[in-house]
Amino acid sequence: MRMFIIIFSKEILSFLRSIMLVVVVLYSFTIDVYMAGSGIQIKPQNVVVGYVDFSKGDISKKILSRLRRPEFIPPVRFNSQKELSKAIFNKEVIVGIVFDSNFEKNYLEGKKTNLNLLLDSTAASQSLTTLTYLQNIIFDFEGLSPPIKIKSHKLFNQNANNHTFMALSELLSLVTMLTIILTAIVFVKEKEEGTWDIMLLMPVNPKITILAKSISQVVIVMAGVILSLGFILFGVFDTPMNGSFWAFMLLTFLYSISSAGIGLFVAAISKDTMQVAQLSIVIMMPLIFLSGAWTPIYAMNPIFQKLSLLSPLRYYIEGSESIFYRGTSFVDLLPYFVGVTTLGILLYWYGFRKIGRLF
Fold first, then answer.
1. Cis peptide upstream of residue 312 (ω within 30 degrees of 0)
2. For 240-278, what is each residue's pLDDT tens digit?
3. How many CB atoms neighbour CB 155 within 10 A?
4. Separation between Cα atoms, residue 147 and residue 140, nearest integer Å
5. Nearest 5 degrees, angle CA 130-CA 106-CA 83?
6. Three-state SS at 49
7. Do the Cβ atoms of 325 and 157 come closer than 8 Å?
8. For residues 283 and 280, what is the distance between their CA atoms, to the nearest angstrom?
9. What is the distance, to the nearest Å, from the Cα of residue 172 to the centroid of all Cα atoms in its chain?
10. Which of 29, 88, 166, 300 would bridge 304 by S-S if both were Cys, CB 3.0 to 4.6 A apart?
């Protein structure tokens, strides 16, 4: 235990003396999480709408006047549909509206009239959501009400606010990335600095060395998580935590152990920090794709749905979201704890054995 504490303390001090690593960790858990929460927008905001008005009447102006901030900026007028199409092609405009010459006449006479829309579907989420907004504007303008009235009740996120969701997702992904990279670097630095052989000659059990070095990086990541929770998620975004804070911290610790196991594997086969970065990205991307962070599990191909069971990040994300948003009790969280713990033991054991062969 004494040697474990000495090596553990030495790695913490070494991290604190590495200014660049400290800056990267602080930036990741603060500014990066903040930018993900505040900068990534799913709903329309500041959408640029262009229009061509061949009707030259008042009805078109009344419809355009309903395109207000913050969803829309003041519509931009074009002289022809060709100009409007070119602006969409150059991504100057996301949505185009064309009022034909008979639009107002047919409207006032109660005849069928068309409102032509051009959408830039390279920004599919924004443009299609904007289309829904425009349809609601037209229905409201017409005073139309469908025969069926839909009443919706939003569960877990009553304001449909994506800031807290995106910030939490970014934090969970950062735990994966930083634990893998920091754990790998702490060993690879010994190779780069030429102190690996000296470490091998130390009268210390190699298992103690590996355990102390890897756990020290897990503790650093845990400290970053607490920093991010206090200042960004709870402080800036006022993210609700309907479940147990300690359940989340325990789940994070167990998941960090599994990521540290991957980091040990990366350290065992890497010769320098450049290889650590390359291998970490190659390993992390499948983990993130299969976790449900970007695409819901149910929307994946059935083969990938089964493969996602091998991603510890899936259990970590689902468990964390259940704690934060649903307030799930500890008993109902057991499947996530079992998944993270089982995969964590296997991954850490394999990484431990892999790097242990170098001692």
1. no
2. 888 899 999 999 999 999 999 999 999 888 888 888 888
3. 8
4. 15
5. 50
6. strand
7. yes
8. 5
9. 8
10. 300
Matching residue, tokens 């070494």: 14
Does the pTM exceed 0.85?
Answer: no
Give the position of tokens 């960090």.
Answer: 256
Mean pLDDT of 214-226: 94
Token pair of 179, please?
């634990």
What does residue 112 show for φ and ψ, rounded to 5 degrees?
-70, 130
Q: Which pLDDT belongs to residue 175?
A: 93
Instruction: For residue 345, give the H/E element and its range.
Output: helix 334-356
The rounded distance, in Å, linking the Cα atoms of 188 and 196 is 9
Instruction: Please report, as a single letter, which amino acid is at residue 90.
Output: N
CA–CA distance, 54 with 104 (Å, rounded to integer): 10
| Cβ–Cβ < 8 Å for 325, 243 | no
**CB-CB contact of 343 with 315 (8 Å):** yes
Return the pLDDT at 224.
Answer: 94
3-state secondary structure of 98: strand
Q: What 3-state class would DSSP assign to 131? A: helix
Q: Where are the alpha helices (DSSP H) in 112-156?
A: 124-142
Report residue 144: phi and psi, to 5°. Answer: -85, 145
Structure tokens at 105: 């006449």
Q: Which residues are CB-neighbours of 209 under 8 A, at least 6 positions away? A: 7, 199, 202, 359
Contact yes or no for 94/127 (Cβ under 8 A): yes
**Three-class SS of residue 96?**
strand
